[in-house]
UniProtKB/TrEMBL annotation:
Residues 1-24 are annotated as: Disordered. It comes from Agromyces aurantiacus. Residues 23-79 form the HTH lacI-type domain. InterPro entries: HTH_LacI (IPR000843), LacI/GalR-like_sensor (IPR046335), Lambda_DNA-bd_dom_sf (IPR010982), Peripla_BP_I (IPR028082). SUPFAM superfamilies: lambda repressor-like DNA-binding domains (SSF47413), Periplasmic binding protein-like I (SSF53822). This is LacI family DNA-binding transcriptional regulator. It comes from the Bacteria.
């Protein structure tokens, strides 16, 4: 003989007295004494439905008592959108400082009632395509697409099926708005720090890798010298591998050129230059002042003396990417928003 009460057949959790099986909309309707359609209207906050406040309150009470959770995917399919924002990245979740992009995007998304879904693909195109496909199936509000360093990127075609903003990268074809560091202003800021300290013979140790950072920072260096009335001297421009050994290897050439100050492409290069200058009995900043770039704090804040540098605005890139995606800020002319790279003053100048 079967029990006529379906509720009695449902196993109950010993912890909270609630059903150990998922509670359905039908269960809520039965407990509230209303139709399933009425429950659906209340769950989806349909204010146009003709439902009295007393009935709405009974439904809300039943939802709370039974622990009912709406099927988010079903709601997304009905509404055509969700409260999720996707972020697809090639490696930023595993890099020492660029993970701040995720932090900034997550904070800004949460502020506006959205949750960030992150897929870190390690540059695997098949994994990237699968991640984008799953996000599209879940009707995300849009997708942020990010790379771990500033560069031109090939945009997966599937991204163009939804709203997309590029973060720390850009499309040469202008297929989507982009939020990127202002490399030129960063180069100007780094050089001005040395000019303001009275230096006139300032070297730049740039990277051997073609990139927006290589071109933009050199342009900013030249513009700052020009504004100060100092002629550009090709003999003070050095290319080095963008790592500690590159900075170390170029030390002799920098010293031979008579530079009293050096703007390094990044903090790792500056760390190598520190080693080279120290081996030659030169003191920082009294003999040679040094400015880095990136503000990789595990390096810059712990060198002796601590390194004055220019920060890459990773957190702000994430925040502004979400704001552009949600239409909270206007897309700039040209589709590319350049974000200032702030100086971080320490003791090497």
């Amino acid at each position: 003989m079967t029990d006529a009460n379906p509720k009695a057949r449902r196993p109950v959790s010993a912890e909270n007295g609630r059903s150990s099986h998922p509670v359905t909309m039908r269960d809520v309707a039965k407990a509230a004494g209303v139709s399933v359609a009425t429950v659906s209207h209340v769950v989806n906050d349909n204010r146009n439905a003709r439902i009295g406040e007393a009935a709405r309150e009974r439904v809300r009470k039943a939802i709370d008592e039974l622990g009912y959770r709406p099927n988010a995917l079903a709601k997304n399919l009905v509404s055509g959108s969700s409260k999720f924002i996707g972020l697809v990245a090639d490696a930023i979740a595993t890099t020492p400082f660029a993970g701040q992009i995720i932090h900034g995007a997550q904070d800004e998304a949460w502020k506006h009632g959205y949750v960030l879904l992150v897929a870190n693909t390690e540059g695997n195109r098949a994994a990237e395509d699968e991640a984008i496909g799953m996000m599209l199936e879940h009707k995300v509000r849009g997708i942020l697409y990010s790379t771990w360093y500033h560069r031109a990127a090939e945009i997966p075609r599937a991204l163009l099926e939804t709203d997309v903003v590029l973060v720390d990268c850009f499309s040469e074809a202008g297929e989507a708005p982009a939020v990127v560091p202002d490399e030129v202003e960063g180069g100007r800021s780094a050089t001005r720090l040395l000019l303001d300290a009275g230096h006139r013979r300032i070297a730049i140790v740039n990277t051997t890798t073609p990139s927006p950072a290589h071109d933009g920072r050199l342009q900013g260096y030249r513009e700052a010298l020009d504004a100060a009335g100092i002629p550009f001297d090709e003999a003070l421009v050095f290319d080095a591998r963008p790592e500690q050994e590159g900075g170390y290897d170029v030390t002799d050439a920098v010293v031979a050129a008579g530079a009293t100050a050096v703007f390094c492409h990044n903090d790792r290069v500056a760390m190598g230059l520190y080693d080279g200058l120290r081996e030659r009995g030169l003191s920082i900043p009294s003999d040679v002042a040094v400015v880095g770039f990136d503000n990789q704090e595990v390096i810059a804040a712990h060198l002796r003396p601590p390194l004055t540098t220019v920060a890459l605005p990773h957190y702000e890139l994430g925040v502004l990417g979400v704001r552009l995606l949600l239409g909270l800020d206007p897309v700039p002319d040209g589709g590319r928003l350049a974000v200032a790279c702030p100086p971080v003053i320490r003791s090497s100048v």
